[in-house]
Automatic annotation (TrEMBL):
Alcohol dehydrogenase-like N-terminal domain residues: 3-131
GO function terms (MF aspect): S-(hydroxymethyl)glutathione dehydrogenase [NAD(P)+] activity; zinc ion binding
The protein's name in its UniProt record: S-(Hydroxymethyl)glutathione dehydrogenase
Pfam family of the protein (one): ADH_zinc_N
Key words of the record: Metal-binding, NAD, Zinc
Residue span(s) of domain Alcohol dehydrogenase-like C-terminal: 173-305
Cofactor(s) required, per the database record: Zn(2+)
Length: 339
């Protein structure tokens, strides 16, 4: 059992709460970005003990030799370990049971294998990224989904190299992490695109070189961006979940080699489209889940980098809300005007 200290809020929690996701199961305890501390461990759990600090990850890593998704050589290509996918999607623990009930004893479902909007939760051992004893749990909460996803999309999925050009569509926490990750990789030009110009200030602070508001133009944003660069942009990222924006991101990519990564989660039933000519002329369209990070082995080094001063994360915490019993609810970045 894990004591939850800090939470951040992801749009996926809000979308699921809205009831629009047909896969949403209720009643459930939402939340999947948290800093937690182990209170007790179940039978057979090795490598974790009470007092350990843990980031619950919605992508598990079983690490078993017979798991082709975890184990080299092919396991190097992905973080999508399917070990507990069925039960996690069904809102239960790997043994098929829920560990939550309401006051009347009626079952409450788990969510994304995390259910962190709770004072205590139960998480599968293979979903637990154990971080250093000195890790600040509020900062840890940022790495359970959004910030890791943005950084990993740049570093793992598209592997942006120094000197390249990048376009980021949507400047929430994920988009800002894409900018930060690109700047850390030495990208020469970083386009930050959003219809809310209030987000441009922080984007520039993190390394954006060009801020573009599609509302300022009377032609599609992909035409604007291609016009600004002649042949398009080396690496583009959708951080909105809007399928029209996904198309614009793909069509902004460089002729011959541009790569576009879908990060945003689209509403249920939505589909993407483009002219096949966009692919025939060398653009690649891909996507990422949790930025390609393997939870147990690759998330703890992010906190190590933060503690060593090599990775800045404090700027993602702009608001704090006090929870019950002194628990902390950190909130990811949003413009002050949306208070
Ligand atoms: N069920 C939806 C897709 C949901 C989806 O894409 N989820 C993201 C995580 S949301 C993080 O906030 C994801 O990475 N999923 C990978 C996985 O293994 O579940 C649909 O459209 O079908
Ligand atoms: Zn999320």
């Amino acid at each position: 059992m894990w004591e939850v200290h800090s939470n951040a809020l992801c749009h996926t929690d809000i979308y699921t709460l809205s009831g629009q996701d047909p896969e949403g199961l209720f009643p459930s305890i939402l939340g999947h970005e948290a800093g937690t501390e182990v209170e007790s461990v179940g039978e057979g759990v090795v490598g974790l003990q009470p007092g350990d600090k843990v980031i619950p990850c919605y992508t598990p890593q079983c690490g078993e030799p017979d798991c082709i998704f975890c184990f080299p050589p092919r396991g190097k290509r992905t973080n999508l370990c399917p070990k507990i996918r069925g039960t996690q999607g069904g809102g239960v623990m790997p043994d098929g049971t829920s560990r939550f009930t309401d006051a009347e004893g009626k079952e409450i479902k788990h969510f994304m294998g995390c259910s962190t909007f709770s004072e205590y939760t139960v998480v599968a051992d293979i979903s637990c990224a154990k971080v250093s004893d000195s890790a600040p749990l509020d900062v840890c909460s940022l790495l359970g989904c959004g910030v890791s996803t943005g950084l990993g999309a740049v570093w793992n999925t598209l592997n942006v190299e120094g000197g390249s050009s990048v376009a980021v569509f949507g400047l929430g926490a994920v988009g800002l992490a894409v900018i930060q990750g690109s700047q850390m990789r030495g990208a020469a030009r970083i386009f930050a695109i959003d219809t809310n110009p209030k987000k441009f200030e922080i984007a520039k602070e993190l390394g954006a070189t060009d801020c573009v508001n599609p509302k300022d133009y009377d032609k599609p944003i992909q035409q604007v961006l291609v016009g600004m660069t002649k042949w398009g942009i080396d690496y583009t990222f959708d951080c909105t979940g809007n399928t029209e924006v996904m198309r614009a991101a793909l069509e902004s990519a460089h002729r011959g080699w541009g790569e576009s990564c879908v990060i945003g989660v689209a509403a249920a039933g939505k589909e993407i489209s483009t002219r096949p000519f966009q692919l025939v002329t060398g653009r690649k369209w891909t996507g990422t889940a949790f930025g390609g990070f393997k939870g147990r082995s690759e998330v703890p080094p992010l906190i190590d980098a933060y503690e060593a001063g090599r990775l800045k994360l404090d700027h993602y915490i702009t608001h704090r809300f006090q929870g019950v019993e002194g628990g902390q609810w950190g909130c990811r970045w949003m413009p002050k005007e949306q208070d």
